[in-house]
From TrEMBL:
This is Lysophospholipase L1-like esterase. It comes from the Bacteria. Residues 9-197 form the SGNH hydrolase-type esterase domain. It comes from Evansella vedderi.
């Protein structure tokens, strides 16, 4: 057995697990998969709030408790962007100005870039501890809106643009689109099936974890 794996989950309502009801969100499900794949005890810490957008999440990075957790972490997941897009859409419905989405995308890009900078800054003093950062992609809860897929893809491209070295992008858009009501039966949040998909897709990246043992 390896020493403990520290897993820090950062983000919005997806990380909180809203919509899972009597089951669990992806964090607990992913924790189990980490244990199975890496054969090491997992200590999980969650820093997340429902309805939070990327600017608010970036502010959370000044929290000393979150900073300590990041420094100690081997695995970090970040779910953010959905509320940025929803907020932009509310504004767009009033003005019909497509620049609203472009501005939201630009702010999102800079916020995520700063988050990753903060993480790497906190990690640079301990080269001995292997770690990966996993950016969870957006899905489309409103597929009937004609322009929705386009902007979900644009925001996902922002997240994907940061991949490299120890940063990975987890794409769930296609799978959620394929399973449709089986993962998003009511409202905008996944059910247990949806959260299991998120956990399963995250787990695929564990083969790149530096100390992975098969």
């Amino acid at each position: 057995m390896q020493s403990n794996i520290i897993y820090t989950a950062i983000g919005d309502s997806l990380t909180v697990g809203v919509g899972a009801y009597l089951s669990t969100g992806f964090v607990k499900r992913y924790e189990k998969l980490i244990y199975q794949k890496l054969q090491a005890p997992v200590i999980t810490r969650v820093f997340a709030k429902p309805r939070i957008h990327s600017s608010q999440l970036l502010q959370m990075f000044s929290n000393p408790e979150l900073q300590r957790s990041i420094q100690q972490s081997n695995i970090i997941t970040i779910s953010i962007g959905g509320n940025d897009l929803l907020k932009a859409n509310r504004k767009y419905k009033k003005s019909k100005d497509p620049k609203i989405f472009e501005e939201a995308e630009n702010i999102f890009y800079h916020n995520v870039r700063q988050m990753l900078f903060e993480i790497q800054y906190l990690k640079e003093y301990d080269y001995s501890r292997p770690y990966i950062i996993q950016l969870i992609g957006l899905y489309n809860p409103f597929p009937k809106i004609s322009y929705s897929d386009y902007w979900v893809n644009r925001f996902n491209h922002v997240l994907y643009s940061f991949t490299g070295n120890n940063i990975y992008f987890t794409d769930i858009h296609y799978l959620f689109k394929h399973y449709n009501k089986r993962v998003l039966p009511i409202g905008i949040h996944p059910n247990g099936n949806g959260y299991q998909i998120v956990a399963n897709e995250l787990a695929k990246t564990l083969e790149y974890y530096p100390h992975h043992t098969k």
